[in-house]
Specification:
mainly alpha; 82% helix
Length: 79
């Protein structure tokens, strides 16, 4: 069992990884679809699960349009 400092470092590292995944997803969407509306960026930034961010990263390759991707994103956010 680690110290409290170790626990805070681990939580900080996990948060840094989440922020990096959020930015990667946003940048990859911009590369694929050019312009991303601010509300989509905010919705992505609200996701705090690495697993869910990874699923959306994979999903962007399956979606033909940003509208299609946004439908899935909104379904997740609404639940």
């Amino acid at each position: 069992m680690g110290t409290i400092a170790d626990m805070f470092r681990k939580e900080g590292l996990e948060q840094d990884i989440i922020l990096g995944r959020q930015e990667l997803l946003i940048k990859s969407l911009m590369l694929k679809y050019d312009v991303i509306k601010p509300h989509i960026i905010e919705e992505i930034k609200s996701i705090q699960s690495l697993e869910i961010l990874d699923k959306f990263f994979e999903l962007k390759y399956k979606c033909s349009t940003l509208d299609e991707f946004t439908i899935y994103l909104n379904e997740y956010i609404d639940n």
